[in-house]
């Protein structure tokens, strides 16, 4: 059985709202890159849901933002 997926459009405007960071474990020195989403017109005095993305091991690349695409 074969499954074929197709896309009728690509939406990327929110990709630019992610900021890239790296968490460094103080004990081991190991680093984990991640992407944090901040909404347009972000107000630090308001509450928002937490939206972040950490790529799994299959994303064996050096660019933290690439898995968002």
What key attributes describe this structure?
69 residues; single chain; mainly beta
What does this structure look like?
- There is one protein chain.
- The chain starts with 17 loop residues before the first strand and ends in a 16-residue tail after the last strand.
- It is mainly beta and 69 residues long.
- It is 0% helix and 23% strand.
- It has one domain.
- The chain has a three-stranded antiparallel beta sheet with strand order 1-2-3, with no helix packed on it.
- The protein contains no helices and three strands.
Spatial shape: flat
Number of strands: 3
> Structural class, judged by helices and strands?
mainly beta
Q: What's the number of domains?
A: 1
**Multimeric status of the protein:** single chain
Instruction: Give the mean pLDDT.
Output: 81
| Largest sheet entry | 3 strands, antiparallel
Quote the beta fraction: 15-25%
**Rg from Cα:** 16 Å
**N- to C-terminal distance:** 28 Å
Describe the structure concisely for a colleague.
The model has no long low-confidence stretch (mean pLDDT 81). The chain has strands at residues 18-24, 31-37, 52-53.
């Amino acid at each position: 059985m074969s499954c074929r997926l197709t896309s009728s459009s690509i939406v990327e405007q929110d990709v630019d709202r992610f900021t890239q960071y790296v968490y460094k474990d103080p004990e081991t020195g190991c680093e984990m890159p991640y992407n944090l989403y901040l909404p347009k017109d972000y107000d630090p005095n308001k509450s928002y849901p937490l939206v972040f993305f950490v790529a799994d091991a299959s994303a064996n690349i050096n660019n933290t933002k690439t898995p968002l695409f």
